[in-house]
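Box 3.1. Reading complex inputs
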Amino acid sequence: MKLVAFLATVDPNNCAGCRICSKVCPTLAITMVDKKPVVDSERCVACGNCEQRCESRAITLEKLEQTHVITVTVDDLPREQVDALCILAGFHPSQILCYCSATRAEEVAAAIIKGAHSPEEITLRTGLRSGCSVECIQPALRLLQAYGITPTPPTGGWQWYGLTPTLKEIPEAVKTKYQNHGFCFEEDLKLFESIVSSKRR
Amino acid sequence: MRSPMIPAPARLSQYGVAPQFVTKRAAEYPEMTSLMLSDLFDDTPTLIYPSEKGLLVIRDATRKALERVDMSMIKPHQSVNICASHHGFTMAGGHPYAEMLKTLHDVIAERTGCKNIRLRAGVGLRFRETEEYIKRFELDTYFGPHKAKGVAPIDEGIAIQTEIGTLYGIKAIYDADWIVHAHNSDVREVHFHRQVDRAVKPFGMSYARIETRSTYHQNLGPRGANFTARCIFASDFVQSKFAFASFLDMSPAGVVGVDADNDLFALNDRLTMKGCQYYGKIMTLLGEIDECIAVLDFPCPVPYVFAAGVIYANFVGANTDLFDIENTALPAYTWYTEAFYGKDGPLISGIAPVNPAIRMCVHNYAWGGYPSVFFAEHIPTIVVGAQQADSMSRDSQNVQYMQHALVAENTDAAMRFAYKAAKTDKVIIFDGAVGGVNLSRSLAELLVARAPAISRKVDEVLLPKWLHQRGIDPVAALGLVAG
């Protein structure tokens, strides 16, 4: 869930046309028209990535007169279906996946079931990755993978590159090699298992 | 009792409220005093900075540390990236770290004849933060036109093959023939890294892309996460570029020295041990506080404001032993802990609550730019000034912060309310005072009384356990100290 209260706004006179804003936008809200960025207000979730990386400082976040909330309802889906998808991806349904928007796994799972089949669409519908935009790309990709979807990174963009390993995939040889270094792989695996199997909400 | 120390001044930044809105500092109150780390612990290490000699000691210490480093791999026609991270610029005013970077530039140029020496400064979640530091410390001028650059985790990436699979670094970090890892040893985010591979961490964090950082904070677990940096650093790709590392050696009181090595893991063992020693005592002592009002009063994000060299995020978890990696699986605050709070509380039993000693938080001056809602959600929080409240609400990482915090018109009103509501006169001020802590007299008396017993406990019980858990033999690690 994300309250969107700002909109990225471009000053074309200051823009150098470098396209970086369009490469870092997590919802693909920015397209280049005549070498200048154009922001689709329907897709902007006010993460600020474009404003933060614009080398010409041509982008600002302007307060919206009318704020809006982006969220996906979970309750209109079969609970078992949502839970099963979360658990298959290694998450408890009530687990928070985005520390900025407090979006939980069940909401992302619901978004995927309802047709959000890329990280960009997940962000647009749930607000995941709309804050710092750094820490929660892997949960999005893991849930998509669990649903049988292998999305393709946006062409020419830097939004994301790919899935990375999880704790379950650490090779035994690596665990053995570093068993005395304090990484506690097995203990953390058990912790994850206890979270995923928890009946609490 | 001493007078309070002068806190770090408010600073203009796009991530916080403008300095003109910071009209009063908590250290100004007559009931406040200060304690130096050396007042608490006899074995507080000797500092080289702050000192009367100023930054020259940092330059001299860096040059001396580099004498034992091999730079012969760097050829005159090649390029070198000195890789830095944002946190170093927040310590002791930032000047020591900037001076170490400048000295690195000079010594590399002198010894290798290399002219193409660049600065690549990584960040956390405030993507322009090091751009601000580069300007402030005139590193752009020092390194030359287009040589000093702030880099962010959403910048163009590069795939790195590791022994657990593909991870991703920031392309600009690695766009030179050689990289020099320039960092600091402050334990800082020990709730995350648990003092495991602390010296290596930037390879999985400030030098890394979002995919890698997400791996750390979502995929590998609260302790397993620390393998992220090691496997990237140990990759053939990074090893083919790594020249050496240079660290500002920190204690909670200030800069102890500069350490440098071609062997990052040897350096890591030394700094891990010192970090447990230097920070273990004060962090354990702060865990003895039974009740207090915490005042945030420093120009950086909420979790990073610091007192006695310890950041607020660690004080929030001071009711657990953050260095005990076996018995404290989840500190009271880490992102994994935050993730594992369901709608009705923790998803499993055994998750420690946030430090119950913090009865109230007065957010007098601290920035956004880091997801901090958890703190306001779990600790009654008063934010000083409507402008600061608005600044938090404008931050995409803290849109909901003010849904859990109240606003006071000014510092006086906030403190009055806090005293009444918290029903304690013990106050600890996270204002970055160098060398010690500003605090109320009542709290100072408690810390002074408890410090000797805590010092003995750390020396005799905790430190041996912490080092054993990390596979570090203190004798062997000390034996690696050259010179």
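In summary: DSSP finds 17 helices and 19 strands in chain B.
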